[in-house]
Amino acid sequence: MTPAKQDNRAVMRAATAGEVSISHVKRSSKKELRQTIVTVKVGQEDAQRTFHTHRELLCFYSPFFRTMMNGDWEESKTNTINLPADEPEVYEVFDNWLYGVDLGLESTQTKDVSLIMSLWIFGDKMQVPGFQNAAIEALRSATMEPPRNFRLKDIRTAFENSGKGSALRKLIVDLYVWEGPLTGLMPRLQHDGYPQAFITQLFEGYVDAFPRPSTQTVKNKRPYGVNAQQYYVQHPGTSVARDAAVDTTET
């Protein structure tokens, strides 16, 4: 093992133990990775795309893929993963992110906002908090300029594919409570088919922020637009994020 690899592994263990800041952890290059390539087939047959991703990266960042590739499963035997329910465009961004490429989706275009939400949901499904947090950063940036709202379709997608109390739901509700056009939205909530969970959380958030509507006294400091990290998903039991070094030993 090269000194660089030994250093990467030592720093990664220290970061996991909380002994060093994540900013001190080095990112591994493609040359440092073992040549174990996984074939990942994404999408339905008529629109399916095939990707080739290092097994070490998938297993390091995702407990979902780690379990799949290390158990007595067909995927671990064939080094082939099928994701028919997922979108190739989403996995392509994820695949690039694994290799250190930023999302680059901070525009306010409807397509980008919808895609960013899909990225967060994919990260949630695959249990990759670092990827979810990158999506949160991009989503917040995309909604910092008018129009500061989400399409009904995107709200439905978010609430149908995330759990109660999720960071994605909180970000959406906070935007409407603090920045959104509530006056125009209120009459449409029941008639336009907004998710009941969204309506409930929206009213709870508004009451919590403005406990005295007659005087608009603000109870809490405005959260939206201040710090995206408040919407981050925490890594369970570790402080290691995307820039951590990949352990190049066999998983």
Order of helices and strands: HEEHHHEHHHHHHH
Beta content: 5-15%
Question: What's the total helix number?
Answer: 11
In terms of per-residue confidence, which ranges show pLDDT below 50 for 5 or more consecutive residues? 1-28, 237-251
- Biggest sheet, spatial arrangement of strands: 2-1-3
The structure class reads: mainly alpha
Distance between the termini: 16 Å
Please describe the biggest sheet, giving its number of strands, its sense, and whether it closes into a barrel: 3 strands, mixed
Work out the number of β strands. Answer: 3
Helix content: 40-55%
User: Rg from C-alpha positions?
Assistant: 20 Å
Q: Average pLDDT value?
A: 77
- Shape, please? elongated
Written overview of the protein:
- With 251 residues, the chain is mainly alpha-helical.
- 46% of the residues lie in helices and 6% in strands.
- It has helices at residues 3-16, 55-61, 63-70, 74-78, 88-98, 110-126, 129-142, 152-160, 167-178, 182-185, 196-209; strands at residues 37-42, 49-54, 80-83.
- It has a three-stranded mixed sheet.
- Strand 1 (37-42) and strand 2 form a beta hairpin.
- Residues 1-28 and 237-251 have low confidence and may be disordered.
Question: Which SSEs are present, and which pair or pack?
Answer:
Blueprint: H1 3-16, E1 37-42, E2 49-54, H2 55-61, H3 63-70, H4 74-78, E3 80-83, H5 88-98, H6 110-126, H7 129-142, H8 152-160, H9 167-178, H10 182-185, H11 196-209
Parallel strand pairs: 1-3
Antiparallel strand pairs: 1-2
Helix pairs in contact: 2-3, 5-6, 6-7, 9-11
